[in-house]
Amino acid sequence: MSAAARTDAGAPAPEPFPAFLKLAGREVLVVGGGKVAAGKVDALLAAGARVRLVAPELRPELERDGVERLRRPFEPRDLDGAWLAVAAATPEVNREVSRCAEARRVFVNAVDDPSNASVYLGGVVRRDGVTVAVSTGGRAPALAGLLREALEALLPSDLSRWTAEAGRLRDLWRRPGAPPLAERRPLLLEALNRLYAPRRDEAAPPAAPEVHP
Fold it and tell me: Might you give the EC number(s) for this enzyme (predicted)?
């Protein structure tokens, strides 16, 4: 039986649109002052966001530079100017943040409350300039975490070589006479496998993974 999400009417639910947000220099509202909020603030600051934090009580690690702190309950005007909101408070507060954000057309991630979220944050693997995100549409975040760990174990330790080679080929393929798009992926696979080909001055070939599509 399919495990796809369904609407109340039993129809298949629309799939979320996956995207990566450029938040550098943009304001993000975080509501909540606990451990979960602290984790979200870390990720938002790493993305270069300007964080406004609203909560009556704050954990000590939230007393940090780059965070505008407002020690009080959430108010709808806190969303003014925000590109994104993260609701990491009580369920009642999260619902209020979600309601107000929806009215202002601000996307909101309501932690552990997918019914009140318009953004789901997935499990993320970052290595050597490559970012892989896994989402279950908010239905099974623990599974997303397990899949993230599995993908992290599968990625090669020298992924930076793959990234560099793919970037080199992309620059070449921007020039006139480049192969058509349909041929580029097989050509990239051949190029990645050549990274592990033994050199003529080496006595024995190095152990290397085989790159498959």
Answer: 1.3.1.76
